């Protein structure tokens, strides 16, 4: 057996059994090894951004990493933007990047590049394999790091390490380091601070703290102390809907966010980072809490976030306190919007018709700002979203979520400008017959940038600004593009048409795309 | 005026008047400044790989750099693959990457990343702007570096440097360093070696040495000494066709390349690198010339390549020697192929029908291996190709070439798998009404990888290998995808249909795509 076989076996012994792939010549031995492992599910992406975005969506829903197969530095470069988003979501991922044989690097062949320099900014762990026998240890380390950091790991596989021989060995599951213990002294201190600050305190969550149980426990703490609760602006996954905590997220528009947090004097971060402006704006602060707000980082993403929240609840004797902020079910039987379609009507219709146990992948950017709030009382669902601000993650996220959860409906809320970045992902939805409904908000502009231009004082656009901020002339025809990649699709210009198409899509299995012209 | 205005003015005073763009929020002041400069042509790409691929195609044909506008580290990450190809073509390029305001970086906002680490592997020059007043000097340095290295330059523009004030100033064109002088002693030595080795010597060219004049001069040297002539395996641009030098390129398949170069005892490199295998293959050498071949690097890409060749011709008294290897015009009036379409028939038909002064952008990968040779005697044309092996450059190259040369027909020879990487570029062809015919070789596989799998000894593919190497199930429908992006298209399954569609496309202006099902 060779190093590539050992690679597959090390993944499989750790229950990593999905590989999103876009292979090249230097990975042929890896492909051949995968071909000898029918228990590994290989999913092809026609562009590397699809591959890593899908691996991100998969791991967010499967709670374990997928592997990816990427081709040399330039192939991995295509994957970096969605590695960045995954890194910001603390998603476990094991990227395997093929490289030239070790002895071939000296020749500076055309595809040679500094893979480490490219990988580090978007990876929490980078490791170059040094021999065929080093493949197993390297993949084991990456697996453990992906779950314990947690985050994106990148392993560089020189071709001769893939084709080199290894001794057969009985593999054992890799030990993953236990998360850091909760610091009881800090718990006591934070509990005291929460008691003292009452409603001027807030708990801010991300990561595994946003699952149903831990979030409800945090809401018990809030009920006991009067504290507010927030999720970060962007998060890997939130379990939500009627009966769960209706947790607000920090707003994107800077003035709204400053307003939202202006009265917070104590901010307890559980996994979350200090909230900051997505961008700097002249004359506005970078940190969204006020200057004298006391910020306490109680736990970071690699820590035991649920355990931390439980310890806090215990310290406050709040385990049995009924949780605050539980969402009531949305009103039933209300009439759906009618008439000319707009973004808000799309959001309302999707929220009202949302099926139980759906997975929403949100890259709606400016069009879907109300959508998250529309869904507080919808049937229970998972909400996963663009995390790092690098657009082009939505369609791939749907791919990954649907691979992870074949029995659940995946609904992609997709801005049109963003969707074009990784539009190739539609083909993978068709190839794998994934149960995804993609709703494209076809406003035919980079609407978010229209707003930002106004923020810098430009209200009257000339030719060059229009050319760079509008996507019309020609309008994108999403129905034809989807058809070209094997995905059935329909176009809606009225709310009635949209509701009819959306109901139809919910009633069938397999990918469907709706171009909502707004 | 602000730093962004100074940026535009510095570009314009240096005659850099095209900006391929995909902007984001941190670049809004740059967009606003571009909007105040109608003399700057702004071309939107719906994905950053389109932007840098187009800038590459533009500069190869315009012989001057374009600017690009990219959004933060992750946006630039999407651009890296085609920066890599441009770097391998020694293409001048000025990438302007927006970043957070300097004082905002400390907050690690979602889009924050280590831009320098990402940029360096794919840039010959990287520079971070430090203040608004530093914008002009930084862009000037990048301009000079892009032409003198020559190559890809990346300038990082923090938002506060774009919006900060600068004093008005009268700008002057930036001085570009003169290329290194020819070393007459080395010329004499090489001339002596060429005389000595006769037909066992070869001159290998790339860069500006592949224009009509210098290449003909090199062919005079060959005629005078008996030396052979080669172009690198991949090159930025070759001026070719009937009456010009029919220069062979180094083959991609390793065994063919080794055979091609096996008798060369003296290799004179003028701009070119030592030929090496595109990949390493077990048991095969990395260098394509034999171990005792004497390799002499006479000039590197930043040097005066035409001057070097002239000096060599002078030393050999070959200026008036009739050049060797001049291509005779292809036979006229031969019947075109008929019947079921295949890749070779597509190549033959395009070569036979090629219009005078066309620009061919070749990313045909395995399907078009014969095409380059089919065109030796075709009407004179420019040939530009994928250089760095990072697929997804073809459609953007066509965009850039057509922007640079609006009066010339651009013909994209496009593999289907590669085309999907930057398929969004078709929209830019429609938006700008560019005169491009894209011929898609729809073989519905990664055909090159089928060959490489056989190279590693796998002839019988299982389910996983098929899933990763085939693009069928579902077949891509290029006609619908093109229509979705506003490009008219047709499909051909016979040689007659292909010839009819290709003739029709040549007879009109504006973008057209032909899906050649092979």
From TrEMBL, chains A, B:
Gene3D superfamilies assigned: 3.40.50.970
Start and end residues of each Thiamine pyrophosphate enzyme N-terminal TPP-binding domain: 1-109
Keywords for the protein's UniProt record, in alphabetical order: Thiamine pyrophosphate
Domain of life: Bacteria
Stored InterPro entries: THDP-binding, Thiamin_PyroP_enz_TPP-bd_dom, TPP_enz, TPP_enzyme_TPP-bd
Record domain Thiamine pyrophosphate enzyme TPP-binding: where: 379-515
Record-linked Pfam families: TPP_enzyme_C (PF02775), TPP_enzyme_N (PF02776)
Similarity remark: Belongs to the TPP enzyme family.
NCBIfam families: PRK07586.1 (NF005760)
Protein name (Swiss-Prot/TrEMBL): Acetolactate synthase large subunit
Source organism of the structure: Bosea vestrisii
